[in-house]
Design a protein that fits this description.
The complex is a heterodimer. By secondary structure, chain A is an all-beta fold. Chain A is built from no helices and eleven strands. In chain A, strands 2, 4, 5, 6, 9, 10 and 11 form a seven-stranded mixed β-sheet that branches. Chain A has a four-stranded antiparallel β-sheet with strand order 1-3-8-7, with no helix packed on it. Chain B is mainly beta. In chain B, a hairpin with a 4-residue loop joins β8 and β9. Chain B is globular and about 40 Å long. The chains are: A mainly beta, B mainly beta. Chains A and B meet through β4, β5, β9 and β10 of A and β5, β6, β10 and β11 of B.
């Protein structure tokens, strides 16, 4: 079945540096991908919608210049956390919709998620 | 306004028993979809079940069933014959409108299954 893969699964970076997280759809093309953030013991919050070939759409309160999203191909979206700080430490997870028609639950796939720790 | 409400922060159930996890939602759209996901400690989001707003029958997937009460705007998840491996966080989520697959999540319910 369709799979969405994220890399890296865990990353530790120093404060002030940038870190890139990749989200790949492995056997389908995804024109739209979504990036969520989840703080410990909290729910998933949508950060942005990544659109292939165009600018991402950010949710209110999400800093565009800090969380750079690039959806350069139909199978890859990247989230770059620029000038990371400890408060950016969180679980980041992406999702993608498989374009197989219909709108059923099985068409929304999540990546495995990426744990970011900024020290 | 909270779109998805899960009022049970934690639930306990004994192995082999059934458990119901509550979810209520708020939307003015006629077309929407409701999802349940399981999140184990590893963090991955595992899709469990989906209910479309126009679906007349309650969704079922193996041991999972969704008790959809449209007038009450509730979409409770029923897990039958609980297993130890069911211990995890469970999230209810909603998609509004058609075609756009952005999901809004509830705050989750932590389920603990005891032997």
């Amino acid at each position: 079945g369709a799979v969405v893969s994220q890399h890296p699964s865990r990353v530790i970076c120093k404060s002030g540096t940038s870190v890139k997280i990749e989200c790949r759809s492995l056997d389908f093309q995804a024109t739209t991908m979504f990036w969520y953030r989840q703080f410990p013991k909290q729910s998933l919050m949508l950060m942005a919608t990544s659109n292939e070939g165009s600018k991402a759409t950010y949710e209110q309160g999400v800093e565009k210049d800090k969380f750079l999203i690039n959806h350069a191909s139909l199978t890859l979206s990247t989230l770059t956390v620029t000038s990371a700080h400890p408060e950016d430490s969180s679980f980041y997870i992406c999702s993608a919709r498989a374009p197989n028609g219909g709108i059923s639950g099985n068409t929304i796939y999540f990546g495995e998620g990426s744990w970011l720790t900024v020290v | 306004a909270q779109k998805i409400t899960q009022t049970q922060p934690g639930m306990f159930v004994q192995e082999k028993e059934a458990v119901t996890l509550d979810c209520t939602y708020d939307t003015s759209d006629q077309s929407y979809g409701l999802f349940w996901y399981k999140q184990p400690s590893s963090g991955e989001m595992i899709f469990l079940i989906y209910q479309g707003s126009y679906d007349e029958q309650n969704a079922t997937e193996g041991r999972y069933s969704l008790n959809f009460q449209k007038a009450r705007k509730s979409a409770n998840l029923v897990i039958s014959a609980s297993q130890l491996g069911d211990s995890a966080m469970y999230f209810c989520a909603m998609r509004e409108g058609r075609g756009f697959q952005k999901l809004v999540f509830g705050t989750g319910t932590r389920l603990l299954v005891s032997p």
